Amino acid sequence: MEPLVYRVAPGSKVDLAAIDPRSNGNLERAVAEAEFDALTTEIDDLQELLYGAGTHSLLVIMQGMDTSGKDGTVRKVFSKVSPLGSYVYSFKVPTEEELSHDFLWRVHRVTPRRGLIGIFNRSHYEDVLVVRVHGLVPEPVWRARYRMINDFEHLLASSNTIILKFFLHISREEQEERLLAREKDVEKAWKLSAGDWREREHWDDYMAAYTEALERCSTADAPWHIVPADRKWFRNYAVARTVVETLRPYAQDWLAYLGKVGEQRLAELRAYRAEGER
Ligand code: ADP
Description:
By secondary structure, this protein is of the alpha/beta class. The protein has helices spanning about 30-55, 70-75, 95-100, 105-110, 130-135, 140-145, 145-160, 170-185, 195-200, 205-215, 230-275; strands at about 5, 55-65, 85-90, 115-120, 160-170, 225-230. The protein has eleven helices and six strands.
Protein backbone atom coordinates (compact mmCIF):
# COMPACT_ATOMS: atom_id res chain seq x y z
CA MET A 1 0.00 0.00 0.00
CA GLU A 2 1.47 3.33 -1.02
CA PRO A 3 1.22 6.04 1.62
CA LEU A 4 -0.74 9.17 0.88
CA VAL A 5 2.05 11.51 1.79
CA TYR A 6 5.55 10.76 2.97
CA ARG A 7 5.95 12.32 6.38
CA VAL A 8 9.66 12.77 6.95
CA ALA A 9 10.62 11.36 10.35
CA PRO A 10 13.02 13.68 12.21
CA GLY A 11 16.61 12.79 11.42
CA SER A 12 15.74 10.30 8.68
CA LYS A 13 17.22 10.10 5.19
CA VAL A 14 15.22 11.17 2.15
CA ASP A 15 15.56 9.61 -1.28
CA LEU A 16 13.39 11.66 -3.61
CA ALA A 17 14.25 9.47 -6.58
CA ALA A 18 12.60 6.56 -4.77
CA ILE A 19 9.29 8.39 -4.36
CA ASP A 20 7.14 8.20 -7.46
CA PRO A 21 5.63 11.62 -8.28
CA ARG A 22 2.89 9.83 -10.23
CA SER A 23 1.73 7.84 -7.22
CA ASN A 24 -1.99 7.80 -6.60
CA GLY A 25 -1.75 6.13 -3.20
CA ASN A 26 -3.76 3.22 -4.64
CA LEU A 27 -6.80 5.46 -4.65
CA GLU A 28 -9.49 5.75 -7.25
CA ARG A 29 -9.92 9.23 -8.58
CA ALA A 30 -13.71 9.33 -8.25
CA VAL A 31 -13.56 8.17 -4.63
CA ALA A 32 -10.85 10.70 -3.77
CA GLU A 33 -12.73 13.54 -5.42
CA ALA A 34 -15.93 12.77 -3.57
CA GLU A 35 -14.10 12.63 -0.27
CA PHE A 36 -12.15 15.77 -1.13
CA ASP A 37 -15.33 17.77 -1.10
CA ALA A 38 -16.13 16.62 2.44
CA LEU A 39 -12.57 17.32 3.54
CA THR A 40 -12.66 20.94 2.35
CA THR A 41 -15.90 21.46 4.27
CA GLU A 42 -14.28 20.00 7.35
CA ILE A 43 -11.30 22.34 6.94
CA ASP A 44 -13.73 25.26 7.01
CA ASP A 45 -15.39 23.89 10.17
CA LEU A 46 -12.03 23.35 11.83
CA GLN A 47 -10.92 26.86 10.96
CA GLU A 48 -14.02 28.25 12.64
CA LEU A 49 -13.18 26.34 15.77
CA LEU A 50 -9.56 27.49 15.52
CA TYR A 51 -10.80 31.06 15.31
CA GLY A 52 -13.37 30.72 18.06
CA ALA A 53 -10.98 29.14 20.52
CA GLY A 54 -8.20 31.55 19.57
CA THR A 55 -5.59 29.41 21.26
CA HIS A 56 -3.67 28.21 18.19
CA SER A 57 -2.75 29.26 14.70
CA LEU A 58 -1.98 27.11 11.69
CA LEU A 59 0.95 27.79 9.40
CA VAL A 60 0.98 25.90 6.11
CA ILE A 61 4.15 26.08 4.05
CA MET A 62 3.99 25.18 0.36
CA GLN A 63 7.22 24.49 -1.49
CA GLY A 64 7.95 22.82 -4.80
CA MET A 65 9.51 23.39 -8.17
CA ASP A 66 7.93 25.79 -10.67
CA THR A 67 4.59 24.41 -11.95
CA SER A 68 4.38 21.91 -9.06
CA GLY A 69 1.02 23.43 -8.19
CA LYS A 70 1.60 25.52 -5.09
CA ASP A 71 -1.06 28.06 -6.10
CA GLY A 72 -3.53 25.50 -7.40
CA THR A 73 -3.33 23.37 -4.26
CA VAL A 74 -3.98 26.34 -2.00
CA ARG A 75 -6.89 27.46 -4.14
CA LYS A 76 -8.57 24.06 -4.02
CA VAL A 77 -7.76 22.86 -0.51
CA PHE A 78 -8.76 26.09 1.23
CA SER A 79 -11.57 26.96 -1.17
CA LYS A 80 -14.26 26.85 1.49
CA VAL A 81 -12.40 28.65 4.25
CA SER A 82 -13.67 32.13 5.03
CA PRO A 83 -11.44 34.93 3.75
CA LEU A 84 -11.72 36.29 7.29
CA GLY A 85 -10.02 33.23 8.67
CA SER A 86 -7.09 32.71 6.37
CA TYR A 87 -4.58 34.46 4.15
CA VAL A 88 -1.88 33.57 1.67
CA TYR A 89 1.50 35.22 1.61
CA SER A 90 3.73 34.74 -1.43
CA PHE A 91 7.45 35.16 -0.97
CA LYS A 92 9.17 36.82 -3.89
CA VAL A 93 12.77 37.84 -4.56
CA PRO A 94 13.64 39.81 -1.39
CA THR A 95 13.50 43.59 -1.60
CA GLU A 96 16.46 45.72 -0.70
CA GLU A 97 14.90 46.41 2.67
CA GLU A 98 14.35 42.72 3.32
CA LEU A 99 17.91 41.93 2.31
CA SER A 100 19.13 44.50 4.80
CA HIS A 101 17.80 42.35 7.64
CA ASP A 102 18.31 38.78 8.73
CA PHE A 103 16.62 36.28 6.42
CA LEU A 104 13.82 35.52 8.86
CA TRP A 105 12.79 39.12 9.41
CA ARG A 106 10.33 39.22 6.54
CA VAL A 107 8.96 35.84 7.49
CA HIS A 108 8.35 36.34 11.18
CA ARG A 109 6.21 39.43 10.64
CA VAL A 110 3.72 37.56 8.47
CA THR A 111 3.27 34.43 10.59
CA PRO A 112 -0.37 33.80 11.51
CA ARG A 113 -1.80 35.18 14.71
CA ARG A 114 -3.89 32.88 16.87
CA GLY A 115 -7.16 31.91 15.27
CA LEU A 116 -5.90 32.23 11.71
CA ILE A 117 -4.58 29.97 8.99
CA GLY A 118 -1.54 31.51 7.33
CA ILE A 119 -0.42 29.93 4.09
CA PHE A 120 3.06 30.54 2.75
CA ASN A 121 3.52 30.20 -0.98
CA ARG A 122 7.29 29.70 -0.86
CA SER A 123 8.89 30.60 2.44
CA HIS A 124 12.12 30.94 4.38
CA TYR A 125 13.13 27.66 2.71
CA GLU A 126 13.98 29.67 -0.40
CA ASP A 127 16.97 30.81 1.63
CA VAL A 128 18.40 27.30 1.55
CA LEU A 129 17.05 26.44 -1.94
CA VAL A 130 17.36 29.10 -4.65
CA VAL A 131 19.97 30.87 -2.55
CA ARG A 132 22.03 27.69 -2.30
CA VAL A 133 21.60 26.63 -5.92
CA HIS A 134 22.70 30.04 -7.19
CA GLY A 135 25.31 30.71 -4.52
CA LEU A 136 23.63 34.00 -3.57
CA VAL A 137 25.43 33.91 -0.24
CA PRO A 138 28.58 31.98 0.75
CA GLU A 139 28.08 28.34 1.75
CA PRO A 140 28.80 28.80 5.48
CA VAL A 141 26.00 31.39 5.55
CA TRP A 142 23.30 29.17 4.06
CA ARG A 143 24.60 26.11 5.92
CA ALA A 144 24.03 27.83 9.24
CA ARG A 145 20.42 28.46 8.27
CA TYR A 146 19.09 24.94 8.75
CA ARG A 147 19.58 25.27 12.47
CA MET A 148 18.21 28.77 12.53
CA ILE A 149 15.13 27.58 10.69
CA ASN A 150 14.60 24.75 13.18
CA ASP A 151 15.00 27.16 16.09
CA PHE A 152 12.62 29.64 14.47
CA GLU A 153 9.97 27.02 13.80
CA HIS A 154 10.39 25.73 17.35
CA LEU A 155 9.78 29.25 18.62
CA LEU A 156 6.56 29.46 16.59
CA ALA A 157 5.43 26.03 17.75
CA SER A 158 6.12 26.97 21.37
CA SER A 159 3.69 29.78 20.89
CA ASN A 160 0.94 27.38 19.71
CA THR A 161 1.52 27.60 15.99
CA ILE A 162 0.68 24.29 14.36
CA ILE A 163 3.08 23.94 11.43
CA LEU A 164 2.61 21.83 8.32
CA LYS A 165 5.13 21.82 5.50
CA PHE A 166 4.40 20.36 2.09
CA PHE A 167 6.88 19.61 -0.66
CA LEU A 168 4.97 19.11 -3.91
CA HIS A 169 7.02 16.46 -5.66
CA ILE A 170 6.65 16.58 -9.45
CA SER A 171 8.73 14.79 -12.05
CA ARG A 172 10.95 16.62 -14.48
CA GLU A 173 8.86 15.25 -17.34
CA GLU A 174 5.62 16.54 -15.84
CA GLN A 175 7.17 19.95 -15.38
CA GLU A 176 8.15 20.05 -19.03
CA GLU A 177 4.59 19.18 -20.05
CA ARG A 178 3.13 21.86 -17.84
CA LEU A 179 5.54 24.51 -19.11
CA LEU A 180 4.75 23.57 -22.71
CA ALA A 181 1.03 23.65 -21.98
CA ARG A 182 1.37 27.22 -20.77
CA GLU A 183 3.07 28.13 -24.02
CA LYS A 184 0.26 26.68 -26.07
CA ASP A 185 -2.52 28.43 -24.23
CA VAL A 186 -2.66 32.22 -24.49
CA GLU A 187 -4.78 32.37 -21.38
CA LYS A 188 -2.15 30.54 -19.39
CA ALA A 189 0.85 32.26 -20.96
CA TRP A 190 0.87 35.02 -18.34
CA LYS A 191 2.22 32.40 -15.96
CA LEU A 192 5.17 31.75 -18.26
CA SER A 193 8.63 33.00 -17.61
CA ALA A 194 11.83 32.30 -19.46
CA GLY A 195 13.33 31.98 -16.00
CA ASP A 196 11.29 28.81 -15.40
CA TRP A 197 13.13 27.09 -18.25
CA ARG A 198 16.43 28.44 -17.00
CA GLU A 199 15.78 27.13 -13.46
CA ARG A 200 14.94 23.75 -14.91
CA GLU A 201 18.55 23.34 -15.96
CA HIS A 202 19.43 23.27 -12.27
CA TRP A 203 16.97 20.46 -11.53
CA ASP A 204 19.51 18.12 -9.90
CA ASP A 205 20.94 20.90 -7.75
CA TYR A 206 17.44 21.75 -6.60
CA MET A 207 16.73 18.13 -5.76
CA ALA A 208 19.92 18.01 -3.69
CA ALA A 209 18.95 21.25 -1.93
CA TYR A 210 15.41 20.01 -1.27
CA THR A 211 16.70 16.69 0.02
CA GLU A 212 18.91 18.38 2.57
CA ALA A 213 16.18 20.79 3.68
CA LEU A 214 13.73 17.89 4.07
CA GLU A 215 16.25 15.83 6.03
CA ARG A 216 17.54 18.57 8.28
CA CYS A 217 14.38 20.52 8.93
CA SER A 218 11.72 17.91 9.55
CA THR A 219 11.05 18.07 13.27
CA ALA A 220 8.32 16.88 15.59
CA ASP A 221 7.18 20.51 15.83
CA ALA A 222 7.22 21.16 12.12
CA PRO A 223 7.21 18.03 9.99
CA TRP A 224 7.79 17.94 6.24
CA HIS A 225 5.39 16.04 4.02
CA ILE A 226 6.43 14.92 0.57
CA VAL A 227 3.37 14.88 -1.69
CA PRO A 228 3.41 13.01 -5.02
CA ALA A 229 2.16 15.84 -7.22
CA ASP A 230 2.07 14.77 -10.86
CA ARG A 231 -1.65 14.06 -10.54
CA LYS A 232 -3.46 17.15 -9.41
CA TRP A 233 -6.49 15.41 -7.96
CA PHE A 234 -4.27 13.19 -5.82
CA ARG A 235 -2.06 16.07 -4.69
CA ASN A 236 -5.11 18.09 -3.57
CA TYR A 237 -6.64 15.15 -1.79
CA ALA A 238 -3.39 14.25 0.00
CA VAL A 239 -2.83 17.80 1.24
CA ALA A 240 -6.46 18.26 2.34
CA ARG A 241 -6.41 15.01 4.24
CA THR A 242 -3.17 15.85 5.98
CA VAL A 243 -4.55 19.23 7.05
CA VAL A 244 -7.71 17.62 8.43
CA GLU A 245 -5.86 14.84 10.20
CA THR A 246 -3.53 17.35 11.78
CA LEU A 247 -6.29 19.63 13.08
CA ARG A 248 -8.86 17.01 14.11
CA PRO A 249 -7.09 16.01 17.34
CA TYR A 250 -7.38 19.61 18.55
CA ALA A 251 -11.07 19.95 17.77
CA GLN A 252 -12.36 18.48 21.00
CA ASP A 253 -10.31 20.84 23.16
CA TRP A 254 -11.35 23.80 21.04
CA LEU A 255 -15.00 22.81 21.33
CA ALA A 256 -14.71 22.36 25.08
CA TYR A 257 -13.05 25.74 25.37
CA LEU A 258 -15.75 27.35 23.24
CA GLY A 259 -18.38 25.71 25.41
CA LYS A 260 -16.84 27.25 28.51
CA VAL A 261 -16.60 30.67 26.91
CA GLY A 262 -20.21 30.36 25.79
CA GLU A 263 -21.36 29.52 29.30
CA GLN A 264 -19.39 32.42 30.70
CA ARG A 265 -20.93 34.84 28.21
CA LEU A 266 -24.42 33.58 29.00
CA ALA A 267 -23.75 34.00 32.72
CA GLU A 268 -22.57 37.57 32.08
CA LEU A 269 -25.69 38.26 30.07
CA ARG A 270 -27.92 36.87 32.83
CA ALA A 271 -26.14 39.04 35.39
CA TYR A 272 -26.58 42.10 33.18
CA ARG A 273 -30.29 41.45 32.76
CA ALA A 274 -30.73 40.83 36.47
CA GLU A 275 -29.03 44.17 37.15
CA GLY A 276 -31.56 45.89 34.91
CA GLU A 277 -34.42 44.45 36.89
CA ARG A 278 -33.02 45.72 40.13
P1 ADP B 1 5.92 32.18 -8.17
O1 ADP B 1 6.09 31.83 -6.72
O2 ADP B 1 4.49 32.13 -8.62
O3 ADP B 1 6.83 31.41 -9.06
P2 ADP B 1 7.43 34.44 -8.98
O4 ADP B 1 7.49 34.02 -10.40
O5 ADP B 1 7.38 35.89 -8.66
O6 ADP B 1 6.27 33.73 -8.24
O7 ADP B 1 8.68 33.78 -8.27
C1 ADP B 1 9.17 34.20 -7.07
C2 ADP B 1 10.66 34.10 -7.19
O8 ADP B 1 11.25 34.62 -6.01
C3 ADP B 1 11.14 32.67 -7.33
O9 ADP B 1 11.99 32.57 -8.42
C4 ADP B 1 11.90 32.43 -6.04
O10 ADP B 1 12.96 31.53 -6.17
C5 ADP B 1 12.35 33.82 -5.69
N1 ADP B 1 12.67 33.97 -4.27
C6 ADP B 1 11.85 33.77 -3.22
N2 ADP B 1 12.51 33.93 -2.06
C7 ADP B 1 13.78 34.21 -2.39
C8 ADP B 1 14.96 34.46 -1.63
N3 ADP B 1 14.95 34.46 -0.30
N4 ADP B 1 16.08 34.75 -2.31
C9 ADP B 1 16.10 34.77 -3.65
N5 ADP B 1 15.04 34.53 -4.42
C10 ADP B 1 13.89 34.25 -3.81
